[in-house]
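SAMPLE LOG
Freezer: B-3
Tube label: C17
Construct: single chain, 217 aa
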Amino acid sequence: MHPATLHKAQVYLHMLDIENEIVIQSDFKLKGLFQDSNFRSRTIIQEAIAQDDLSNSGIAGMINATLTIWNDSISIWTERFWLKLADAQIPYSRKDPLVFVLHNGKFKSQGHAQDAKYNWDVLISSGLLRDRFSNEELSFISCVIGEDEQRRLKMLRRCLKTGRVPISSYRQFGENIAYFTRNRLLADYAYRGTLITSHFSEEEIQALDVAWQVQAV
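STRUCTURE (predicted):
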């Protein structure tokens, strides 16, 4: 095995240690799946090193696969992961969804929009973003989050008014329902003793469900 490949494998194992530490501390709903994946990746690399059977492309592929979730999520745990990598001087390149927002004024994906809305208040209060973004940049991202939510709300309101979902908008409708559901905006809920009011009444939520089942002509 080439020394450079062995070094990459050792750095990757260190990254897996950091990932496992972050996942253990996290509130991830699929924490067990993360840990299983981490264990399998570690086992594969350790066996490949022991058998002197690891190529440069092989380790590169595993690094990219592991980093996918950390390059494609917005959360306090994502920030902590990348901070830990920096502290350990592990020079992996980050593809930051928030930087994409700054450059393009929109989210790259539905998942990014959901993550940002769901985790934004916690991220801001944690202070973890302030070393990477100015106050103006954070305000801009906040505005994009708000505008994205309003666009989604406008689309659902339009469907409520017509009582149907156009065939061309079925996917967007489903994504918007998922967005509001994850962010607990489809129903009132209590948060730390405070009642948070949703965008929709119970009757409107039922009407949305009916509209989704009506095929537009």
